[in-house]
Structures are given as structure tokens and as C-alpha cells.
Amino acid sequence: MGIAIASFFFGTPLYRIQNPGGSPLTRMCQVLVATFHKWNFSVPDDSTLLYETPDKSSTIEGSRKLLHTDELRCLDKAAVVSDTESKTGDYSNAWRLCTVTQVEELKILIRMFPIWATGIIFAAVYAQMTLFVEQGMVMDTSIGSFRIPPASLSLFDIISVILWVPVYDRILIPIARRLTGNERGFSNLQRIGIGHFLSVLGMSVAAIVEFKRLQLARDRSLVDEAVAVPLSIFWQIPQYFILGAGEIFTFIGNLEFFYDQSPTAMRSLCSALSLLTVAMGNYLISFILTVVTFITTQGGKPGWIPNNLNSGHLDYFFWLLAALSCWNFVIYLFCAKIYKFKKSS
């Protein structure tokens, strides 16, 4: 800790602080208000007639100008110059007239939203790893006379991340670079897609392991007993390992995608949005657990996830998450296919 504090104070004078260029949330609100105010205006076919500053650089500090795109043309109304503004030459009211760059900033965020939303399901799958611990508690945790704490197997998720980073960087990227001709090897969208696929695979493996565990519980007449089943806890390693690999592809791909595709002046906001999926995923998995528990315990049934997992069906819950991940993966493929990358001047 002392070294960390010393490093912080040593590096502080060297850090270049960039002055804020205005709130991106304010600029987005300005576009929406201006669009609403000019809702009855017609958008000219010639995009050069839309308002933009004549300067080479954007009026937004720390941002480059963005080229006009034809999607979401209703938002272009915010950049339509009215007759009054044209006669008076007063273009200073940003709540009535926005630049093309401002409008394009909002368009970019809207285009990125579906990609962002698909990350919530992955984060929810990743957040349910506490159920892996509960699953491990009713498995054989012994190695001779030594017993392995079930929670310690989450270490394999970390090991997976540590192993996959050099494998990805030194092996997969060079191979992908030769095959695709892309300098990065995989595009950001491809990385995220691979991560989504791995989430489907990881939850499927977890469901199969749980199915086998429940089968052993029935064969050994342990259904009504909250005891461990003679199935080694090390069978959980693949599901931890696969989700760890998915974490590398999805979370890193998300961060790079949002940083690369966001407007220059919105990179901090968009990077924060990519991390927001983690929080949303935690809320989502809590909601799913609540709904599943409520539905499956109707009529006095033990439900899928009772206190005694031997009498439940945790495998059904894992299959449910695998199905949600598969559905999410299909939606992601569609969103990635139609996504149009930003254009900077």
C-alpha cells in the first residue's frame, strides 16, 4: 500500500488533465429538445444545408466533426435552420439549433444501444457464479483427507483469464490476422460475439454437470438428503474456465468497441456505459432468480433452487440461462450485422 501511495503522488504531476468540454448529456438533451421544437420542419435532401460550424474543428471541445449519416433522419430536424434564424443570423441558442456533429453524437449512441443491451445478458450469466458455489457444496470436495472449499474453485475463472490473455494475444490474434487480413485479428464485434457464444457453451456445460449430479443423487437415494453427491467438484472446472474465456472476449471487446466507436468527447461516458452492463446484469439475474423461485414453488413444490439442491432442478435453471444466452447471441449477431460504424471528418 505504501508503494502504491508513493507511486500515486509521484505520477500525479506527470498526469495530463484534460479540461471538460461540456456535458454530453446536456448536448443529447439539446438535440432532443430542438428536434421536438422543429418537429413540423422538413429535413432537406441536401445534408449540406443542415447547420454546422464553418470552422474545421468542432465547437465541442476535444471532439472532431462527425459526418452526416442518413439514419434516424428525424433527429436531423434539430440541425435544420429556420427562416428566423437564417434572417437574424443568430445561431447561438443550442436548445433550438444543434450542429450536425451534435446530432450525430446522439445517433451513434442510439446505434450502439442494441450492442450495449446484449451485454446485460452476458453480465447476468457471469453474475450467477454464486450458484456454481452452491452446486459445488453438494459435490465431492475431498482430495484424500483434504477438503476443497467450493468457493475456491472460482480461482479457475481467474486462472482462465490469466491463461487466455497471452494465448489470445500471442496465438489467436496472429492466426486471425492471417485469415482475416485485419490488423487487429478480430474486430471488436467479433470478439464480443465469441464471448456471447462461450457464455452459451459455459452454461450448457454447467447444466450437463448438474444433470449428472442429480442423476447420481437419484441413483444413490439422496434426493431427500441435503448431502454431497459422490461426483468430484473438479467437474466444475470446465464451466469456470469457459466463462473466464468468455469474460476476456466480451468485456474487453465491449470496452474497446465503446471507446473506438464513441464520439471523441463522449469516450468517458461510453466507457462507463460498457461497465454499466455489469450492474444491470446483477439486477437482471436477481430478477430472474426471484421470478423462477416464485413460479417453481407454486403449489408447495420445492422449486428449481431449494435449500436442498438434491431435490431441486438447478440444471433447469442453468438450461434457462443457456437458452437466454443463445437467444441473446442470435439477437447480437443481427445487431452486429446491421451496425454502421461512425464516420469522422
From TrEMBL:
Principal subcellular localization: membrane
UniProt keyword Transmembrane, yes or no: yes
Keywords: Membrane, Transmembrane, Transmembrane helix
GO CC annotation: plant-type vacuole membrane
Gene3D superfamilies: MFS general substrate transporter like domains
Pfam assignment, any one: PTR2
Parts of the chain that traverse the membrane: 113-133, 153-171, 192-209, 240-259, 271-296, 316-335
InterPro entries hit by this protein: MFS_trans_sf, POT_fam
Protein name: Uncharacterized protein
